[in-house]
Specification:
The structure is a single chain. By secondary structure, this protein is of the alpha/beta class. The chain has 2 domains: 6-53, no CATH class; 60-311, Alpha-Beta Complex (2-enoyl-CoA Hydratase, Chain A, domain 1), CATH 3.90.226. The protein is built from 14 helices and 8 strands. Strand 2 (97-104) and strand 3 (107-114) form a beta hairpin. The longest helix is centred in the N-terminal third of the chain and has 21 residues, at 32-52. The mean pLDDT is 93.
Length: 318
């Protein structure tokens, strides 16, 4: 069942009327099919108008939508013969980051990303997509393996951030994230990253410092959540909407700032309304990126990647 967001109430009312009409018995006084068709046209028009002018705070809601496709959905839709690889070979297996080898549109690839889960049991199992140090160390291990076997790396990012618990800090969360970024910048194989939902803080960039970084149209990517930013700056979490504007966390803002390379369009009404279309669009964008990168040598890839990130933030500086 589709969950409607706060700003989608007018759309929800129209769709509710459509459902009521579909359950009516035809009595000859009203052409039910015709009325449903008219209402559906109104829904489509309202969806286009609403999603064409979303505020940053509303995009945050869409990026967090519970029906939005997650990492496991993308793997099932886009990757054949996926073989998961577990453990960091140092402490434990982390269920928030899933990774493994598979075949993507003719490429043998290493693919990894955060899995949030889709019900209470799976969300607890995957720690709501918030990885611990062993998760980032597993990601580093898989990147090194990909480099050894000359496999391109695909990362799908969807996390509110790295897990902030005491145990994670004791086991070196900051160091694990830093090493993850270092691994992204060091490997000599193509690395394509896609923000499919939330790209939160170091928990995202630890696996997203790629040759090509893409974002779905209504995803977000930021150094901190709007709620966290508002609490720290203004001691008032209710100012999250203002923080969302200030953070410039939308795909459109980040493309303008050259933090990302590509914005991948979503179906009208967001990826949660047509997950298959959204996942296909992401697959097409990844395939295009891999086709562009496949003929570059390892040293060239690494050199260009490092130059790309060193140049960020330099525009306009004297």
């Amino acid at each position: 069942m589709l969950t409607f967001l706060e700003f989608e109430k007018p759309i929800a009312e129209l769709e509710s009327k459509i459902e009521e009409l579909r359950h009516l018995t035809h009595n000859g006084d009203i052409n039910i099919a015709e009325e449903v068709s008219k209402l559906q046209v109104k829904v489509d028009k309202l969806l286009r108008q609403t999603y064409a002018k979303l505020l940053p705070s509303q995009k945050v809601q869409v990026a967090r939508h519970p029906n939005r496709p997650h990492f496991s959905d993308y793997v099932a839709a886009l990757v054949e013969d996926f073989t998961p690889l577990a453990g960091d070979r140092g402490f434990a297996e982390d269920q928030a980051i899933i990774g493994g080898i598979g075949r993507f549109r003719g490429y043998s690839v290493m693919i990894m990303g955060q899995e949030k889960g889709n019900d209470t049991e799976s969300r607890v199992k995957h720690n709501f997509g918030m990885a611990k140090p062993e998760g980032y160390r597993k990601a580093q291990r898989l990147m090194n393996m990909a480099e050894r076997f000359k496999l391109p790396v695909i990362t799908l990012v969807d996390t509110a951030g790295a897990y902030p618990g005491v145990g994670a800090e004791q086991r070196g969360q900051a160091e694990a994230i830093a090493r993850g970024i270092e691994a992204c910048l060091r490997i000599k194989v193509p690395l394509v990253s896609v923000i499919i939902g939330e790209g939160g803080s170091g928990g995202a960039i630890a696996v997203a410092a790629g040759d090509r970084v893409m974002m779905l149209e209504h995803s977000i990517y930021s150094v901190i959540s709007p709620e966290g930013c508002a609490s720290i700056l203004w001691r008032n979490g209710s100012l999250a909407s203002e923080a969302a504007i200030a953070l410039r966390l939308t795909a459109q803002d980040l493309k303008e700032l050259a933090v990302i390379d590509t914005v991948v369009p979503e179906p009208i009404g967001g990826a949660h309304r047509d997950p298959l279309a959204a996942m296909t669009a992401v697959g097409d964008a990844i395939e295009e990126a891999l086709n562009e990168l496949r003929d570059e040598s390892g040293p060239s890839l690494r050199g260009r990647r490092r130059e790309k990130y060193l140049a960020m933030g330099q525009k306009g500086l004297s």
